[in-house]
Amino acid sequence: MKEGSLGRRHEVRQLFSRVASTREAIVFGIAIGLFVLFNVTSGGKFASSEVINIMAISSSELGIVVLGVALLMIGGEFDLSVGSVSAVGALIVAKLYQLGLNPFLAAAIAVGGGIGTGAVNGLVTVKFGIPSFIVTLGALMVWRGFVTLVTGGLTLIFRVGEAHPAFYSVLQGNVGRVSVPLIWVVVTAVILGLLLHFHRFGNHVFATGGNKEAARAMGINTDKTKLICFMIVGGLAAFCGILQSTRARGFHAAQGTGMELIAIAAAVVGGTSLFGGVGSIVGAVLGILIVIFLQFGLIMARVPGFWYNLILGITIIAVVIANKFLGQRRRVA
Amino acid sequence: MKEPPPALAEMRNIHKWYGRVHAVDGASLAINSGEIVGLLGDNGAGKTTLIKVLSGYHRPDAGEIFIEGEKVRINSPSEAQALGIETVYQEQALVDSMSVARNFCMGREPVKWAGFLDRQKMNECMIPLRALGLSIKSPDLPVSSLSGGEKQGATIARAMHFKAKLVILDEPTRALAVKEVGRILDFVKGLKEANIAVIFITHTLHHVYSVADRFAIMNKGKIVKDIKREEASLEELTEVLME
Hints:
The structure holds 2 protein chains of 2 kinds.
Chain A: H1 2-19, H2 22-41, H3 49-74, H4 82-98, H5 103-128, H6 132-151, E1 156-157, H7 160-163, H8 165-172, E2 174-175, E3 178-179, H9 180-198, H10 200-210, H11 212-217, H12 222-248, E4 250-251, H13 259-269, H14 281-300, H15 306-332
Antiparallel strand pairs in A: 1-4, 2-3
Chain B: E1 9-18, E2 21-31, E3 36-40, H1 47-54, E4 62-67, E5 70-72, H2 77-82, E6 85-88, H3 100-104, H4 119-123, H5 126-131, H6 148-161, E7 166-170, H7 178-193, E8 197-202, H8 205-209, E9 214-219, E10 222-228, H9 234-242
Parallel strand pairs in B: 3-8, 3-9, 6-7, 7-8
Antiparallel strand pairs in B: 1-2, 1-4, 4-5, 9-10
């Protein structure tokens, strides 16, 4: 009897440790702390349903990219081109729609284009052995240059809602009181979470990012693993661009600028290691929440906007120091 | 006259260049089932390179490999594993940030459907670990929490679990405390008892002297001595090594 209950408790703890670790518990604590703090400084407005709804929409669009970026970082690589690729995705869907294509088909082609850019990033990185930091920095400039060239810097109109209400509701509508982008990010998180933590592929990602040589020696195709991660990120970035353009009803050449750094910041705040091999989907979700809480909390506390970058910067560095300290302590234990 | 059975694994006249460096210069080495061969030589003698050819990590520039008498080409570590050759590399056999169970099945994960991990099967890694006398508390512990000897033990248990015929140990006793070296040697004897052949690479002769059946000494990319234990004295081997 006692044996059984002990076994059950071990199982529960195992299940918990699979989904979240000490690291995530701390990040969760920080997120809750920020929420409470900003609710006090805003006089209770932070927890109102309007504010939560706006935060949900912005965090969803960013979050879809962060999840992919975190997956890739766990696999040991970076993607600095996500902002530009999101613009490429948005440009493709808006342009093809203008040319008379069905928007669903146009969106599928745009996501395919994003996957393609990811494949190029991945192939160049693994085949030429160049750091992905450099490869995707190049891609950031190339794709931003491309969209500026094609649009001539002008805004494209993408008023898809009137002619195709179904397309708009699938991407930016509401289900009851829940905005659809939130459903998209939750679905993405669940799928990537299952892949990363419960699937063979995830084991290959952790091994590739944690110790590439060991992974290779045990027969894992580390190049293929990285390539797939790059393609997932590219597809998600393009999808994010489509969501943004659908909501904004247009596309402009600067759309998504700066997204790459915020995405990496959110992933790192959520416990993803910059050196690969460490991180989780739960952590990435919490990282997104912290970044969004900071953004909106500071606005609502009427702190001038330029404080946001400064405080986000300090938070990132503090979290990385805390993680390093935590990692060392765990190794001693 | 009856022909002797072919060797479990045989490398014939292997060459490997790194740019202009002739790392392995026509080395030949054979090993029989259940035999422990100590591969000795100074740092840079070409031991690890020769062995990486057998384990599929490097392609030889020239030379042939035979497994149980049959000529094979080993193009990748997974092809070597499929032939029953498991390699335990120095310092790079495990991923520190991953759990024991995840490390154990790395690259050969047991799955239920559509590639989803079979946790129960993964946790069976505790059986060979216990059989080897390792008291690791939980399969969910991160490998970074294990001692150097426990890590080596875990990689050896992994090789046993996946039914290796030949286990290659690359400097398994390097950077280990004296007590842990004794444990590794016990693991090696355990492999022999299970009729698994072992190539034990080291540059410390006295670590391998008590367990090996045969010694192969490498120098400048060549096997300069291949001698049975009963024909070799510690003094003689030391002398060849010092040359």
